[in-house]
Amino acid sequence: MRTLITNIGELTTNDASGEDLCGTRHDAAVVIDGGRISWLGSSDAARSPEVHDAADDVIDADGRAMIPGFVDSHSHLVFAGDRAAEFEARMAGERYAAGGIRSTVAATRAASEDELRARLRRFVDELLAQGTTTVEIKSGYGLDVETEERLVRLAAEVTSEVTFLGAHVVPAEYAGRDEEYVELVTGRMLERCAPHAKWIDVFCESGAFTVAQSRRVLEAGIAQGLSPRVHASQLGPGDGVQLAVDLGAASIDHGTYLTDADVAALAGSDTVLTLLPGVEFSTRQPYPDARRLIDAGVTVALACDTNPGSSFTSSMPFCIAIAVRDMGMTPAEAVWAATAGGARALRRDDIGVIRPGARADLVLLDAPTRIHLAYRPGVPLVSRVWKDGIAVR
Ligand code: NIG
Ligand code: FE
């Protein structure tokens, strides 16, 4: 089945050469064949019989903008319960603390597998409807061997980007025995979870795990064939960024509080910094200065961090709007970070880009340019979505 989409007013390919980060083409056309992009050119060239007549289906984009599907490289989508009251209290002046995670752990442990699966699938559909065609999903609301295994297994039903986050916080039953909990995470829990996961993650922050504990967790995961990524510098500065860079992590996520030394270490590394604007929005923390990072040469990704505590948005357009309005990113940088940047954070080169051979994960916007994603905040501009070449919306 070959589908030609033509008359695309602005095509963000992210297949860049030279000045234009987004590899922008105007009046463009693409062909989807099977799950991949098979051709890309001008609308004029698409009128030729070799392209036009070979298509089974022709879609007229009517001058609208197309971008790669969003790559959301940080989410916690498998959980039960809700923390709306905690959010309400925060909006009235309470501070966010990592401890709230334990209330979601209690609800998640109490939920059945079917209930967790049904909720997870609803979230994945919610993301797709907003243009997210790839999502990374973490465990971390089980914190016992059985439940963590269940969470990574369920996540693996819906994505290949599964992260084992047994080291999210120390669960209540291990209070005061955090070293014993680290033993469990790096031992039996890891053994059961690793077969379902690609990534190992740790929350390296005061109130969660120390740098030494985080290193043990990540190294144990690496020894089991997982690749590292790190939650760090969310609530204050710390040594998590340096640890991530030392271990060659694909990404360090949050980075709300970065020292100049952190920025320099990131700039000289292959580690992506994944910014999560939804967290600052819903915890009333200061937004990180993305301009400082990009100007220093750091590769930046944007992700939603969908979770019931610190950021319960699943909207990449919302995160793009914040990044442009409050974090100093240009619209082009923010769209790149939410697509190609996410792909880099997952060490993938087949997504976040529109070029022959890449996966046909595409979003058609109800707008003439990608700038509208920030210019029209809160407006549902995602009009059509293709995932692996299949029109899902
Ligand atoms: O990425 N930082 C740690 N974990 C989540 C928050 C989880 C929660 O509050 O439930 C995060 O923000
Ligand atoms: Fe997170």
Shape: globular
The residue-averaged pLDDT reads 97
Structural class assignment: alpha/beta
| Low-pLDDT segments, ≥5 res | none
CATH homologous superfamily name of the largest domain? Metal-dependent hydrolases
The CATH topology assignment of the largest domain is: TIM Barrel
Tell me the radius of gyration.
21 Å
Name of the CATH first level of the largest domain: Alpha Beta
- Please provide the count of β strands: 18
Question: Which range does the strand content fall in?
Answer: 15-25%
Helical residue percent band = 25-40%
Q: Tell me which ligands are bound.
A: N-(iminomethyl)-L-glutamic acid, fe (iii) ion
Oligomer: single chain
CATH architecture of the largest domain: Alpha-Beta Barrel
Biggest beta-sheet profile: 8 strands, mixed
Please count the helical segments: 15
> What is the count of distinct domains?
2
